[in-house]
Design brief:
By secondary structure, the protein is an alpha+beta fold. It folds into two domains: about 5-200, Jelly Rolls (Sandwich), CATH 2.60.120.280; about 220-310, Arc Repressor Mutant, subunit A (Orthogonal Bundle), CATH 1.10.10.60. It is built from eleven helices and eleven strands. Helix 4 (about 155-165) runs antiparallel to helix 5. The chain is elongated, with a radius of gyration of 29 Å. Mean pLDDT is about 85; it is low at about 1-20, about 35-40 and about 320-323.
Length: about 325
C-alpha cells in the first residue's frame, strides 16, 4: 500500500451513546507502515513506547486483520471498543479482536505489554488445538487480574517470551510466537472462566445476604436497632452492609432500616386503632414527638395527616396486621 492506512466512513457508537458519522482510520499498527507480512506476524512492544508517541491518546481506529492483547501492569486510563467504554485499572488484560473499532486514553504512568498478531492465523491454530478458545479470541474484553488468584504460568513470563520471539531473527520465530500466543489465550480462557465462577459465587452470596437482611428487617422492624446490630447478625461489617444496600436498593443501610420502619408505621396508622403515641412506642420510639418528626421527614406528612388521608382513601393504605 502507498499509505499505512486507508480511510473508510463507518458508523461508530461513541462513549456518549450518541450515534454520529466519523472517519475511522484503518491501520496495520497504529501510526505505522504496513511493511510486515501480516499472515505470519507477531509484533511486541511495551505499551508506553507506542502510546507515548501519541501523547497517550489513541484515536478510534480499526485493524482489519490483526488482534491485539494488552497486559497493563501499572497505571490506567480507559479504552473504547465497539462503542463500549471500559475503565483500565492495573493489573488487567485487554483483548481487541480484528475489525473492532477501538481507542485508548492512557494516563502517563501506564506500563505493560502489547502484542499484535494475525487473527486468522490464531483462529486456525485454535480450531485445531482447542475450538473453545475462539470465544476468547473473537470477543472484546477487559479482564481484571487478581494477583492472589492468578496461578500457573505468570502472564509476565508469557508476554516476555512472546516478545523475545517477535524480536528475534531465529528460524521459526513466527511459529513460536503464534504458539506462545495460543498459550496466552489458554491463560486468558482460564482466567475468564475463573472470573465467571467467582462472579456467580459472589452473586449467590449477595442474594443470600439480601434475603437475610430482609428477614431481619421484617423481624425487628418494630425495634430501633442500629446498623451494627444487623451487620453483626449477618456476619458482615457495617461498611459491607451499606455497600450491599446501595448496590441492591440504592440507599444506605440506615436508610433501608428507616424505610422499613416507615412501612410498618404506615400499616399501623392505616389499619390499627392504636394511638400515635402507642404506635411510636410499638416501633421503638420512646418519644412521640420524635416519632412524629421522623415520620414527617420521611413522608412529608404528620402521622395524624397520613392516618386521616388513609381513612379517606386519598392515600392507598398498606395492608397490615396491628399488634
Amino acid at each position: 500500500m502507498d499509505r499505512d492506512y486507508i480511510e473508510q466512513d463507518i458508523t461508530c457508537i461513541m462513549a456518549s451513546d450518541q450515534q454520529r458519522r466519523r472517519t475511522v482510520l484503518h491501520f496495520a499498527l497504529y501510526g505505522a507502515e504496513a511493511d510486515q507480512p501480516w499472515v505470519d506476524m507477531v509484533h511486541y512492544e511495551r505499551i508506553p513506547l507506542r502510546a507515548g508517541r501519541f501523547d497517550f491518546d489513541i484515536e478510534p481506529h480499526v485493524h482489519d486483520a490483526l488482534i491485539q492483547v494488552l497486559y497493563v501492569t501499572a497505571g490506567g486510563g480507559e479504552t473504547f471498543i465497539d462503542g463500549k467504554t471500559w475503565a483500565v485499572v492495573a493489573p488487567c488484560l485487554i483483548v481487541v479482536p480484528a475489525r473492532s473499532v477501538h481507542g485508548f486514553h492512557f494516563r502517563s504512568d501506564i506500563d505493560g505489554h502489547v502484542i499484535t498478531a494475525a487473527q486468522s492465523a490464531l483462529e486456525s491454530l485454535a480450531m485445531t488445538a482447542a475450538p473453545e478458545l475462539l470465544e476468547f479470541i473473537r470477543t472484546p474484553t477487559v479482564l481484571s487480574i487478581d494477583p492472589d488468584v492468578e496461578r500457573g504460568t505468570p502472564l509476565e513470563t508469557l508476554f516476555q517470551s512472546i516478545g523475545h520471539e517477535a524480536e528475534s531473527h531465529e528460524r521459526w520465530q513466527f511459529t513460536a510466537g503464534a504458539a506462545l500466543t495460543i498459550a496466552l489465550f489458554v491463560k486468558i480462557g482460564r482466567l475468564s472462566e475463573s472470573a465467571r465462577l467467582s462472579a456467580s459465587s459472589e452473586q449467590r452470596t449477595m442474594a443470600a445476604r439480601i434475603e437475610r437482611f430482609r428477614a431481619l428487617l421484617d423481624r425487628h422492624c418494630r425495634e430501633r436497632r442500629p446498623v451494627a446490630s444487623y451487620a453483626d447478625a449477618m456476619g458482615v461489617t457495617t461498611g459491607q452492609l451499606s455497600r450491599i444496600c446501595r448496590a441492591t436498593f440504592g440507599v444506605s443501610a440506615i436508610e433501608a432500616i428507616d424505610a422499613r420502619s416507615i412501612h410498618e408505621a404506615k400499616r399501623l396508622l392505616g389499619y390499627s386503632t392504636l394511638s400515635v403515641k402507642q404506635i411510636a412506642s410499638e416501633l421503638g420510639f420512646q418519644d412521640e414527638a420524635y416519632f412524629g418528626r421522623f415520620f414527617r421527614k420521611q413522608t412529608g406528612l404528620r402521622p395524624t395527616e397520613y392516618r386521616s388521608a388513609a381513612h379517606d382513601r386519598s392515600l392507598p393504605p398498606e395492608k397490615a396486621r396491628a399488634g
